[in-house]
């Protein structure tokens, strides 16, 4: 184990050859956006940092910031795992990412609207008809619909990673019911309590306006533009892993948290909320329920979570739904591989942020390459999330790779592969020392009548040494993300 000391804080397991660190350069000196942070942390010293971390952990427990892990033993609520050393990035670098995220969501929404209407991109041979035919998230009942502003995915959580050479890539797009933004907001509040002096001395760009931005995005979807809209957050209930976020956002927006049984669709195709004083019309539903359970009339008839007739109300233009039903057609890891062509087709632009190089198993030549190199690649199923169902080839056993090869041969449309990236790290507290841990970044992009990108996002960190899996359900945690205006032109 290598150990180095930057003044009073010891760095262990540094440097990491071939891996980009977000806060430290190859010489282990802080990057420009992290200089003020490291000066401050070193003045505090290890003992004080440990004390502040313990205070934050206690605050997380007291505030009830939790997430739910589904396991064979049942649903387990756990305190949110949080690391107190933030991830930093300069505003100059962020401005380019901001533009790239706006470009990407604009093109994806044009793509979704086209698929449910003219399907020009299929007829022009840019997007294969067989990929669309094999999509589990294409909803026939949405054909011919164009939601307000032509926008289907109003909230997108785009996962970004940085490779060893410093290049930032889009790892995947989350367009159905992306989660995590409440933890981004809570992380910032925790850091303000932890390091108040730094927020006075550094130009750290804010994220606190997200609930207002989200409300404005949703309110713009209201069919009744002359009145203050009634916005509800539709949750599956308290046993959902993201219930903390559902209740948190409803409270912060001044919206109403509801379950399916709280809503009813009447003969006029309007959605109403049951209240003690009678029915009250609902204008916008921010749904946190998957399509399959949204409306038993249109999707799964056995769903007890949704609202009978909700699709009918939406198609009649009597209610706005975010994200729109059917938006998940673009939330597919196989569709992801076509996003550069999608951007070029609809916007006549090259992508500002590149995709990770990928191989499609539905292509015979590419599939043979994947099967011959399973020990070097990461293989992902088209529609899984949370880090489930994928193969990390270099860390898998021969038996696991053999089973995955059989899965690929049986259903090649369902799989794509990518190289195992040397994902960037950042110093993370391990005991009273700082050690590198791999991480990604999920900014949140909003679109209705305008576009908005959070300044930064949710940094997810793999707390286990050497792990590349950042998902909280599999042992990951999070950091606050600081976009710092260093004054660089």
From TrEMBL:
<dbReference type="InterPro" id="IPR051680">
    <property type="entry name" value="ATP-dep_Glu-Cys_Ligase-2"/>
</dbReference>
<dbReference type="InterPro" id="IPR016450">
    <property type="entry name" value="UCP005522"/>
</dbReference>
<feature type="domain" description="Circularly permuted ATP-grasp type 2">
    <location>
        <begin position="86"/>
        <end position="462"/>
    </location>
</feature>
<dbReference type="InterPro" id="IPR025841">
    <property type="entry name" value="CP_ATPgrasp_2"/>
</dbReference>
<dbReference type="Pfam" id="PF14403">
    <property type="entry name" value="CP_ATPgrasp_2"/>
</dbReference>
<protein>
    <submittedName>
        <fullName>Putative circularly permuted ATP-grasp superfamily protein</fullName>
    </submittedName>
</protein>
């Amino acid at each position: 184990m290598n150990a180095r000391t930057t003044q009073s804080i010891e760095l262990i397991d540094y440097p990491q050859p071939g891996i980009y660190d977000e806060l430290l350069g190859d010489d282990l000196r802080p990057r420009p956006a992290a200089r003020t942070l490291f000066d401050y942390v070193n003045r505090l010293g290890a003992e004080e940092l440990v004390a502040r971390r313990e205070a934050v952990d206690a605050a997380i427990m007291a505030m009830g910031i939790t997430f739910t892990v589904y396991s064979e033993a049942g649903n387990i609520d756990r305190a949110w795992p949080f690391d107190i050393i933030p991830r930093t990035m300069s505003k100059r670098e962020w401005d380019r990412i901001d533009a790239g995220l706006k470009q990407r969501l604009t093109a994806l929404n044009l793509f979704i609207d086209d698929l449910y209407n003219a399907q020009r991109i299929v007829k022009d041979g840019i997007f294969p008809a067989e990929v669309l035919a094999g999509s589990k998230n294409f909803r026939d009942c949405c054909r011919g619909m164009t939601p307000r502003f032509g926008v289907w995915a109003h909230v997108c959580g785009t996962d970004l990673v940085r490779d060893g050479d410093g290049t930032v890539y889009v790892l995947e797009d989350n367009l159905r019911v992306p989660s995590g933004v409440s933890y981004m907001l809570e992380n910032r509040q925790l850091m303000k309590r932890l390091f108040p002096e730094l927020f006075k001395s550094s130009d750290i760009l804010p994220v606190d306006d997200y609930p207002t931005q989200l409300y404005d995005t949703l309110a713009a979807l209201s069919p009744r533009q002359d009145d203050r809209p009634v916005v509800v957050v539709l949750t599956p209930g308290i046993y959902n892993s993201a219930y903390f976020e559902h209740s948190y956002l409803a409270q912060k927006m001044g919206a109403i948290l509801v379950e399916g049984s709280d809503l009813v669709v009447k003969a006029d195709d309007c959605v109403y909320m049951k209240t003690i004083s009678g029915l009250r019309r609902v204008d916008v539903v921010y749904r946190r329920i998957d399509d399959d359970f949204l409306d038993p009339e249109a999707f799964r008839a056995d769903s007890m979570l949704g609202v009978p007739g909700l699709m009918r109300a939406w198609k009649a233009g009597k209610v706005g739904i975010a994200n729109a039903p059917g938006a998940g057609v673009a939330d597919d890891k196989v569709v992801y591989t076509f996003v550069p062509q999608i951007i070029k087709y609809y916007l006549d632009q090259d992508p500002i942020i590149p995709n990770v190089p990928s191989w499609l198993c539905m292509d015979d030549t590419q599939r043979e390459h994947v099967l011959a190199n399973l020990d070097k690649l990461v293989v992902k199923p088209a529609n899984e999330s949370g880090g489930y169902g994928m193969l990390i080839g270099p860390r898998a056993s021969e038996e696991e790779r053999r089973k995955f090869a059989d899965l690929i041969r049986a259903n090649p449309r369902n799989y794509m592969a990518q190289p195992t990236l040397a994902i960037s790290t950042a110093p993370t507290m391990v005991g009273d020392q700082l050690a590198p841990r791999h991480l990604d970044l999920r900014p949140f992009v909003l679109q209705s009548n305008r576009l908005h990108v959070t300044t930064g996002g949710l940094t997810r960190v793999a707390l286990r040494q050497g792990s590349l899996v950042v998902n909280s359900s599999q042992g990951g945690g999070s950091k606050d993300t600081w976009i710092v205006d260093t004054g660089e032109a």
